[in-house]
Amino acid sequence: MSRHFGQRAIVIGAGIGGLSAAGALSSAFKEVVILERDALPDSAVSRAGVPQDRHPHLLLAGGLQALDSIFPGFEQDLANAGAVPVDVFKDVRYERPDVGVLPQRDCGTSLLCASRPQIEYTLRRKVVAIANVTLRSHSRVTEIAPAAIRPLVRFESDAGEVDAIEADLVVDASGRGAPTLGLLGALGWEQPHETVVGVDISYTTAVLRPEGTSSNWKNLVTLPDPSISAKAGLIIPLEGGRWFASISDHGATDRPKTWEEFLAAANQLNTPEIYNAICRLSPPDDLRHFVFDASRWRHFERLERLPRGILPVADSLCRFNPVYGQGMTVAAREAKLLREILDRVAGEADPIEALQAAFMSEVGALLQAPWNIGVNADFAYPTTRGERPERYEESRQFEAALFRAIVADPVVQRAFSDVLQLMQPFELLNEPDIRQRIEAHALMPNA
Ligand SMILES: Cc1cc2nc3c(=O)[nH]c(=O)nc-3n(C[C@H](O)[C@H](O)[C@H](O)COP(=O)(O)OP(=O)(O)OC[C@H]3O[C@@H](n4cnc5c(N)ncnc54)[C@H](O)[C@@H]3O)c2cc1C
């Protein structure tokens, strides 16, 4: 694609959302500048600006595919960095309270499991290798100044030095959308309506070395019956032959503070599988905690107008409950959408306006399915706050039948796997053949 979208695009934030957007934009602008407030390490280590990076970050197959299409060779680089291949569901022990363990059938999809710092570092190396992308660390954006034609982004260094750059397009991937919200405030324009679903999830994570253990799974998920317990457990491999073991607790007020308390919490999960897998391992160096209060969709896409050249993306636009592992994948898929739109609108008289309009009108559909998957599951917990989605009871009944069908029918399991991994739209489960297979199980008594 020729670079006739303009001289410069600025991306605020070098998280997964910002890095993927920068890659998508690089062929359309003469220059792409990423402004990041953190120091960016030259290795795969945690950093202050993304405190969640010390917890498991599952990159779904749809995200891996999207990143590999924007950055050819990304998947290979991640594998070379030690990411662990996991075949869905062959290597996954997925335990549910209603149907038990899902069959470990091969559904034809592979993931790569790695730590968030490793995923981000691999991506960052891809981005900085693009000749016209500049990544400026220690650059905290303080405002996007209102401007008639080209937005002006002001930022400051750690030493307090202030600078400003003009751009044709500003992508807000700062995680909270503060620069865009500030700009709307400065202009006196309408702020986006927010859909908020309060979950108050407390995460406790241990990094473990699973020496000497053997099992028929690489990834283990234990879900509770939400009417009895709010504790879910997860084991996921990461580079360096290690495991993340996490316990999440909906609406929790307390959390395990010692390894003994962590083991006690693991022992309260719906099955003993996680406890048995970790109880004889050496204790971790520390326990990591995170509290996630609410999923939050800021409906920028519903606003009648957005300032010219401003595009909020990824968590700035919609922040998902992390237990469903969707945030990075959705961010990568938004970047892929951005790139597809760039191709489509390149010939328009005002391509910046066309890009903004098309992205904002199409991104809602991309967000809706992962949002529904998470929110429908969240409302099974009595402590969840917010407005239940429309036709909630119907979707719960559909889900109950779906899981019974998954156990019995490999075709349904494969379709579910593709939808869960955000590779296929949710409508796949409503296609006549699949729907019929699922409905056949709606009538059967719960096993
Ligand atoms: C506990 C937890 C676990 C998670 N697990 C998963 C998972 O398993 N799978 C998954 O896909 N997702 C997971 N997520 C979500 C995932 O972290 C994000 O959705 C994803 O990284 C996309 O975020 P982002 O790039 O929009 O924002 P972030 O990753 O938050 O990055 C924002 C960046 O912007 C920078 N920044 C912020 N303000 C400024 C400013 N003013 N100026 C300059 N720079 C700025 C920050 O330093 C940061 O680098 C999890 C989240 C949490 C909280």
Automatic annotation (TrEMBL):
Record-annotated FAD-binding domain positions: 9-349
InterPro entries with a match to the protein in the record: FAD-bd (IPR002938), FAD/NAD-bd_sf (IPR036188)
Highest taxon in the source lineage: Bacteria
A matching Pfam family: FAD_binding_3
Coiled-coil blocks: none
GO MF annotation list: FAD binding
Protein name: FAD-binding domain-containing protein
Species the sequence originates in: Bradyrhizobium centrolobii
